[in-house]
Amino acid sequence: MALPIGDAAFHQSYIKTLTIPNSVLSIGQQAFQGCYNLTSIVIPNSVEKIGYRAFRDCESLKEIYSYIEEPYNIGEAFSYSYDDADDFYNRVTLYVPVGTKAKYEATEGWKEFKNIVEMDPSGIATVLTEQKANETIYNLSGQRFATPRRGLNIIGGKKVVVR
């Protein structure tokens, strides 16, 4: 069942990370405006429309993972009302599917981001051959480990294959 996220649905909520489900087709106007604690957003390919100022003034935002393969004009969805709008677009990293960076750089709204990085659509961040120190490690079931296990792990909040 396809659902929208309505206008101002989570306005000024205390959300820290946001993974939008694949069942969402649209994000309404000002849906997440003023979510000052929001640091990370995952947008699935199912989202066909992002409304005006949907993510305005999310001042703690550091990374956006967009799985949209054919980027469309999002206008001022990520607009910033403070004087340091350039700082916002310089510090937020936009991760996009491999082969789509040029499309994002040419599309209104998305092209404002200065750090656009292509990612593997599987969501696997990297392949490790040695242990990473001081990071939280889980398996896909949520069980915590002291050291990475062979196979797919979640290390520091990212999916990682360990060989």
Structural class: mainly beta
What is the oligomer described by this structure?
A: single chain
CATH top level assignment of the largest domain:
Alpha Beta
Total count of domains:
2
- Look at the structure and name the CATH superfamily of the largest domain: Ribonuclease Inhibitor
Give the fraction of residues assigned to helices. Answer: under 10%
Q: Beta-strand level of the residues, as a percent range?
A: 25-35%
Distance between the termini: 38 Å
* Total helical segments: 2
Strand line-up of the largest beta sheet: 2-4-6-7-8
CATH architecture classification of the largest domain: Alpha-Beta Horseshoe
Q: Which word captures the global form?
A: globular
Q: How can the largest sheet be summarized?
A: 5 strands, parallel
Secondary structure: elements and pairs:
Layout: E1 3-5, E2 17-19, E3 24-27, E4 40-43, E5 49-50, E6 63-66, H1 85-91, E7 93-97, H2 101-105, E8 115-119, E9 124-128, E10 137-138, E11 144-145, E12 151-155, E13 158-162
Question: Can you characterise this structure?
Answer:
This protein is mainly beta. The chain has 2 domains: 119 residues, Ribonuclease Inhibitor (Leucine-rich repeat, LRR (right-handed beta-alpha superhelix), Alpha-Beta Horseshoe), CATH 3.80.10.10; 42 residues, no CATH class. The protein is built from 2 helices and 13 strands. It has a 5-stranded parallel β-sheet with strand order 2-4-6-7-8. Strands 9-13-12-10-11 form a 5-stranded mixed β-sheet, with no helix packed on it. Strand 6, helix 1 and strand 7 form a beta-alpha-beta unit. It is globular. The N and C termini lie far apart (38 Å). The model has no long low-confidence stretch (mean pLDDT 85).
